[in-house]
Amino acid sequence: MRRHRRLRQALRHGDRGQTLPIYIWLTAVLLFVAFAFFAFAQAASARNGAQSAADAAALAAAQDSRDELVEGLGLAIGEGDDWLDWLVGDKFAGADAEAAEAAAASLAADNDSQIRDFGQTDVAGLPGYRVSVETNYTVGDSVIPGTESQHAKADATAVIKPRCDLTPSSDPEKVVEFDCDGGESIEIDPDDFELGDLPDAAVLFSVHLAD
Fold first, then answer.
1. Cβ–Cβ < 8 Å for 61, 210
2. CA-wise closest residue to 176 among 193, 191, 188, 166
3. What is the DSSP annotation of 125-192?
4. Can you give the residue ranges of every domain in the chain?
5. From first to last of its 211 residues, what are the pLDDT tens digits of the chain?
6. Less packed terminus of the chain by CB within 10 Å, N or C?
7. What's the pTM value of the predicted model, to 2 decimals?
8. Helix (H) or strand (E) holding 44
């Protein structure tokens, strides 16, 4: 009887000895998986930050050029030029790209990022700007090698879209009436015009991110 009891006790101690390494191994695996998920979360957060910076920078560039388009429109009307081209956005090429890039760089800096590539583009016939940014901060330390020096990058494109419809028979030397999105109707008389007669730039042109 005593022999059987000692045998059972020895078997129980042997089970505990085999189970302990398994518990240690499983704990190590679970910890590694947790740290790996945390690393992916860090990378996703950095990526989202980069994308927000790129979106803001592209929109800032397009908004800056939109304001210049409206200024150019007003000057063209006052000087008796073919101002209808300005109204439909065909004079976008005359916008100050350097000022637009400066506006984009400023917004990128506000989001702790910097411009890596910048340029004018065309999306489905709409003029705009493409911007590539890189975060000043890194993904951070993690169990994945290299993340401590890895910067997130992202691209974005914003376009300028005319919001007003003109009839083909419109004459830039006569009174022109046109309708804009939102139901707003505008009338421009080149013979009786002041810069203050123009509505806000957002009424004439919309700015949005390209799909």
1. no
2. 188
3. TEEEEEEEEEEEEE----SSTTGGGPEEEEEEEEEEEE-EE--TT--TTS-EEEEETTTEEEEE-TTS
4. 2-209
5. 554 455 455 445 555 555 656 656 566 555 555 555 555 656 666 787 888 899 999 999 999 988 888 888 888 887 777 788 888 777 776 567 788 999 999 989 998 899 999 999 989 888 899 999 998 887 654 445 545 557 788 999 999 999 888 777 778 788 888 888 877 788 888 888 887 788 888 888 999 999 7
6. N
7. 0.72
8. helix 2-79
